[in-house]
Target: Phosphoenolpyruvate carboxykinase [GTP]
Amino acid sequence: MLGNWMSLEDADRAVAERFPGCMEGRTMYVIPFSMGPLDSPYSKLGVQLTDSAYVVCSMRIMTRIGTKVLEKLDSPDDSGNGVGYFVKALHSVGHPADGPVQHPHWPCDPDRTIILHKPEMDEIISYGSGYGGNSLLGKKCFALRIGSSIAHREGWLAEHMLILGVTNPKGRKRYVVAAFPSACGKTNMAMMRPTLPGYKVECVGDDIVWMRFDRNGQLRAINPEFGFFGVAPGTSRTTNPVAMDTVFENTIFTNVAQTSDGGVYWEGMDKLEPGVTITDWQGNPWTPGSSTPAAHPNSRFCTPAEQCPIIDADWQSPDGVPIDAILFGGRRPSGVPLVYEAFDWKHGVYVGASMKSEATAAAEHKGKEIMHDPFAMRPFFGYNFGHYLQHWLSMETPNVKVPKVFHVNWFRKDDQGKYMWPGYGENCRVLDWILRRIDNEPLTAQPTPIGYVPTRESFDVHGLNIDFDGLFSVPIDFWTEEAKEVANFLNEQVDEDLPKDVQDQIDSLFRRLSSP
Ligand code: GTP
Ligand code: MN
Ligand code: MN
Model:
């Protein structure tokens, strides 16, 4: 369920079996890169070797690369890294220039693909895959897996979260971070166009956050990336006009369909011009009547963050932006209210640990399943999950102001299987309530066994036709089952490393549920 572990000896053997000669006839590129702004004490440097030009071009969009990074490697700074410190990242598509063709459109070695991380050495070794997450090694491998392990050592957090700034009609601006599993709406939310008058949302990042408490006890966050690597299908002028305006130029599209007039196409995009024909992502002719999708469901755009029309003025601030709330969320068709607030930090850590989401399950399963994805980090933990939980708990000290923690769910469905909440730009109504909670406005919430939910008076549904009680109900039977299932998961997966504080949270939840 969580990451796989192997011994260093086995890892070295796996490398020795794959790498000798694997780049033969190809060009090897050396990419010095920085995760985070070059002048930020939060940032970390890396050097990636790769034999893929696609990786070089994508890394240039997703990270800060080049001479400035080499110069920084040569100069001492106050980040505690010492001169010359960098994460070592090695990548090969695993396909010599004149080797036997494994795949008609893409050099790779799918049967022997392996992605290794050595957290003790801050090293990444990736073989056989050109997939973004496996080959742009600054992203999931460095910024999340090795990053979370460095963060554990150094006392900060590397998380699978978006960062946005939200300004209310009074002109008060706050920043929040939000962790949702893949394909659950981070990029959409980070680029939200709020429907409530007077609200403004600005984007700092859409996928990864590095954050720490500063000397004054304020949590501050940077986006270690330089671009967006977003899911293309479903992105349109209606769902995410900001993303559509961002990807107009300097953008690399992967596994999308092509139009005969030189454009790109994917499912859910706006109407086609008459007379335009389409070639699907595999190079075959495609029409709207075809039985297969035009674009791969996980096709992506890779685009510079600075092209985003609502990029935040402080998105590259070396000191990061101050964070006032942490949101967790996932796709929960039943039982889970639109938003609830954790009672305190420890409960918030439990809420993150208990995250689940509906996913189109792996090939061996039928249909959709609700899967565990704690902190939206299940594929990205760089070390023991129990120690990770302890690390989150240890953030709360007398010297810091911990932010409020919330859980959101845009995906609750009614008896007919229809979404109960319009989502997208309307999600600013949830932000509006969250801001009221941060400001400690009176009478905004009522306690339930799982946390605080909004009162009718405090949650703005003006102009919407929704079933308020259905959307916010907390069914006790559902939650009792849920609590048991989560307790089993944590006890099975984390076992003796489960922190006592998390076990206490499980026990208190059962107590609240049995006497609501
Ligand atoms: P990764 O980039 O893989 O980490 O995922 P992500 O969290 O950025 O996901 P993304 O924003 O690409 O999620 C897109 C999916 O979520 C699409 O299917 C959207 O239609 C859906 N989605 C996003 N926001 C909402 C919402 O508010 N309501 C509903 N119903 N669907 C939404
Ligand atoms: Mn992601
Ligand atoms: Mn995304």
Observations:
- The pocket of manganese (II) ion (ligand 2) is lined by residues 160, 182, 207 (CB under 6 Å).
